[in-house]
Design a protein that fits this description.
Shape: globular
Helix content: 40-55%
Largest sheet: 7 strands, mixed
Number of strands: 7
CATH architecture: 3-Layer(aba) Sandwich
Radius of gyration: 21 Å
CATH class: Alpha Beta
Order of helices and strands: HEHEHHEHHEHEEHHE
Number of helices: 9
Structural class: alpha/beta
CATH topology: Rossmann fold
Strand order of the largest sheet: 3-2-1-4-5-7-6
Number of domains: 1
Length: about 325
């Protein structure tokens, strides 16, 4: 009899624990958005931030919060784009650098359309198409990576946050850590580790490294981390997600038990996001159908549960 009672009690506690766990799962981003929100978005290339979080940027700004967008690269290694813009089949390093300038200007135009100030946009200037290789380049000013497109070994002087930053893992992580510490975000958003573009999943990797290091030094800095996806098996163009008003999760996405958070946009936010997407003229020339597939009435996010997010929880930091 006693054994049956103990089993019943254990089962009751187990059910209560499961219920609490289910209740704690986030279903909305609204609790994260207020005047105290400090949103920092890490975008692999100019346009990813608008495609993935153009509505969220607007909502935070309208609530009175602060937003910073950090571009890992300037998107200057897109050969098809350079060839189309310059009408050449053999682009030079100068052509690629010029293309990077075009994409930076487009990014500033898109973000001001969303309500941001140019002073809140940061370009780190690391190599487009080379972030995954940097993961193997831990150098300290020894044998840095050279971009096969721009021929650069380091970010431009006007973009480097500290002197002599090279194209290597250590310096990129240092730069990310520095912008995080300066801004002290309560909410960090970036492309997820499941994103199939090497620059995108590498952006997540370097951000995770920087957050891990930062929170060891400053435990009170515990931002909530959200991820979104841009590239996954041809999604959203190759699926029904591109045909309706809503953006549906990619089929067969390895969510590892995590739940998608659907962030519904207002008609005003949808219209502004579309205008921002259209500001990326160089990308619309080649990928208009793909870019406009993100012109929906919602955005999709996942709460990150990796090491960098441990302990952060789904609440605002008080710092």
């Amino acid at each position: 009899m006693r054994i049956k009672i103990l089993l019943a009690v254990a089962l009751l506690f187990s059910c209560l624990f499961c219920a609490v766990t289910r209740a704690a799962e986030p279903t909305s981003l609204e609790p994260l958005i207020s005047r105290s929100t400090r949103l920092m978005i890490f975008s692999p290339h100019p346009d990813d931030e608008t495609l993935g979080a153009g509505g969220l940027i607007q909502r935070v700004l309208r609530a009175g919060g602060k937003v910073k967008v950090v571009f890992m690269t300037s998107g200057d290694g897109f050969q098809d784009g350079v060839e189309l813009i310059d009408h050449t089949s053999h682009p030079t390093a100068r052509d690629y650098n010029k293309y990077g300038q075009i994409r930076r200007l487009e990014a500033l135009g898109a973000l001001t359309t969303l309500g941001m100030k140019t002073r809140d946009v940061i370009f780190l200037g690391f190599p487009d198409g080379g972030l995954s290789i940097l993961r193997t380049k831990s150098c300290f000013h020894v044998d840095p990576y050279r971009s096969p497109f721009t021929r650069k070994l380091r970010p431009p002087k006007f973009e480097a946050l500290f002197p002599r930053a090279d194209y290597c893992a250590r310096d990129l992580t240092d730069e990310i850590e520095r912008v995080l510490f300066r801004f002290k975000p309560s909410l960090v958003v970036t492309t997820g580790p499941e994103d199939m573009h090497p620059d995108h999943n590498s952006t997540y990797y370097f951000l995770e490294q920087a957050l891990d290091r930062l929170m060891i030094k400053y435990p009170y800095l515990k931002p909530t981390v959200l991820t979104f996806v841009i590239h996954f098996n041809g999604w959203p163009v190759a699926e029904e997600a591109s045909s309706g008003d809503r953006l549906d999760p990619p089929p067969q996405f390895p969510d590892h038990g995590r739940k998608w958070i659907t962030f519904a946009l207002t008609p005003r936010e949808v219209a502004a996001k579309r205008r921002a997407i259209l500001r990326y003229h160089s990308q619309m020339l080649l990928m208009n159908r793909f870019l406009l597939a993100f012109d929906k009435v919602d955005e999709l996010y996942m709460l990150d549960t990796g090491p960098a997010a441990a302990g952060a929880g789904f609440q605002m930091s008080s710092h």
